[in-house]
Amino acid sequence: MKLDIDPTRQVPVRPAATVMLIRDRPRGGVEVCMLQRNLASDFVGGAYVFPGGGVDPADGEPDVAALCVGRDDAEASRELGLPRNGLAFWVAAVRETLEEAGLLLAVRADGEPVDFADPAVALRFAEHRRAVDQRDRRLVEICAEEDLRLTMGPMQYVSRWITPPGSPRRYDTRFFLAPAPVGQRAVQDDHEVISAEWIAPDEALDRHEAFAFPMLPPTVANLRMLRDFDTCDAALAGVAALGPVHTVAPRIVSDDDGIRIVMPGDPAYERAYSGDDSLTFWPGLEDRVGADWERGLSVDGRGAPQSTTDSTDSTEVR
C-alpha cells in the first residue's frame, strides 16, 4: 500500500461518508464487510476499506430526502454539527455501498426489506447498481421505479477523520455503523474494488499486523471499536452509548528528523515514524516504537476534540 505524501501539497478537502456494515457470526461475535481497493489505484491501492466515498451534490437533493425513513435532514445535521444537508452523508454512504459492494440499505414502501434471493430480482438490481455507478441514473430514480425507501434509522454516526495535509487527496470522512441487509450478497465492482469479504475485527487486525491485510489508521481505529462486541445489537447499542463524536485530524510534521505522521491528542505518537525526506509507505512494525505507536492508533474518534491550524478542516470529507 503506497502513499504519496508531499508536505507542501495543497489540495481541497472533500466531504465523504463510509459505513461499517456488520452482521452476526454463526460462532459468535460480529463480522464486517471489507473491500480491497484496486492495486492499480492512484490512492491507497490495495488497502482494505469499508464501503464509502465522496458526497455528491445530488445526495443532498430534496427528492432524495423525501425517500429517506428513520432520520430527516434536521436530525442528521444536528448529529453532524452542520447547519443543513447532513442527511446527504447518510445518502452517500447508502449510494456508495450499492456501487462498491452491491448492497442496498433500503426497504419497500410496505416496510419489507429488499431481498435479492430471487435471481430475477438480483439481476435487475445488478443493472440498477451499474447504472448508478456509471452515473447513467440517480439512486432516487431506482427508488421510484422499485418503490423503495432508504433506511437511515439504523445507521449510526460513529467517528470523523480528516486526511492530513500533504496527501494527494483529502477527505473529511464521517464513519457510520449499520446492520448489513439480510438476503443480499456483497459483490465487488471489479474496477474500484477487487474483492469483498466478511471478516471479524480481530482477524482483520491480526492479519494487518502480519502485513497481510493493509489498512489505514482510521480503518484500524474503527475496527478496534468493534472488537469486543458479541452481537450486532450489542455493537449498535454500545456505540450509541459512547457519547459525542469528535474530529480526529492527523497531520504530517516535517523537521530536522524527517517526515512523520502525528496523531492529535497523543504526543508519544510523534515518535511513531522518522524518515529522510519522504514517506512513501505507511510505517511497518520495524518503524514503530512499542506501546507508543499502539497507543497512538487507539484513537477511535471518541477522544477529546482536536484543534488544527488548517482552515480546510472545517469542511466535510474522507
Verbal overview:
The radius of gyration is 19 Å and the shape is globular. By secondary structure, the protein is α+β, with helices and mostly antiparallel strands. Helix 2 (73-80) packs across helix 3 (87-101). A hairpin with a 7-residue loop joins strand 8 and strand 9. Residues 266-318 have low confidence and may be disordered. It has a single domain (13-218, 225-242), classed as Alpha-Beta Complex (Nucleoside Triphosphate Pyrophosphohydrolase). The strands form three sheets. Strands 1, 2, 3, 4, 8, 9, 10 and 11 form an eight-stranded mixed beta sheet that branches. It is built from nine helices and 13 strands.
Provide the β-strand percentage band. Answer: 15-25%
Proportion of helical residues: 25-40%
Quickly give the CATH architecture: Alpha-Beta Complex
The counted number of beta strands is 13
Average of the residue pLDDT scores: 81
Terminal-residue CA separation: 18 Å
Question: What is the rounded Rg?
Answer: 19 Å
| Uncertain runs | 266-318
CATH class: Alpha Beta
Give me the CATH superfamily. Nucleoside Triphosphate Pyrophosphohydrolase
* Main beta sheet strand tally, sense and closure: 8 strands, mixed
